[in-house]
Amino acid sequence: MDTNLIKQIERPTLREQVYQGLKKAIIMLELKPGQRVNDNELAALFGVSRTPVREALKRLEDEGLIESVPGSLTRVTPLLEKEAKHAFPVVAALHGVAARLSMPFEREDICSLEQWNEKLRVALEQQDVIKAIEADDGFHDVILEAAGNREIYLALERVVPKVRRLEFARFGSLEGGESVKQHSRIIEAFRDNNSQLASSLVEENWISLGRLLTDHSNDE
């Protein structure tokens, strides 16, 4: 068969795998804020050459997760609450737009929201921070997928890591029951096909999380 449109599906490139692995390690605080990183050591851990590691570090530096300081020191960017505080309203607004674009909401999407919210409730009861954040992500991903707007994904990809590290650092100390209740109200708004209310509630869900995580920030 001769066709220009149907092509073999490409697997993620090596550089993309290294980038995603490093990004996840930084966001989940396996690589801690301020920790020095060495391309030789990272290359050995990944089992690759230094080239994809250096490319990943440069990309992460452009995104503000890695920084180079005088003296050839490369390190994970310190966790700055001020940056996260500024990022939360942006994240909230983008998710609010996604909520409006996702209407009318399909019945199966409503069921997915309910399932993720239940997983969040259980994870919070078990004080499992990783599963709680995964469930929260799953909940909001349903809305993002229903919106089907790639530009929102691309914008969030750059700004979300600035808030995600703070979530992993402090999520476990928060009272998460309110988030489950907020999600329930969001689900009801989607069930009623009330796009304005759903958008407002989604935004407030993110804004309130930002307030909880940054209330005691001393950054100016």
TrEMBL record:
* Pfam family of the protein (one): FCD
* Record keywords: DNA-binding, Transcription, Transcription regulation
Q: Where is the HTH gntR-type domain?
A: 12-79
User: Which GO MF terms does the UniProt record name?
Assistant: DNA-binding transcription factor activity; sequence-specific DNA binding
Which SUPFAM superfamilies does this one have?
GntR ligand-binding domain-like, Winged helix' DNA-binding domain
Coiled-coil parts of chain: none
Has the keyword Transcription been applied to this entry? Answer: yes
Q: Which SMART domains match?
A: FCD, HTH_GNTR
Query: What does UniProt give as the signal peptide span?
Result: none
Name-wise, this protein is GntR family transcriptional regulator
Where does this protein come from, organism-wise?
Brevibacillus formosus
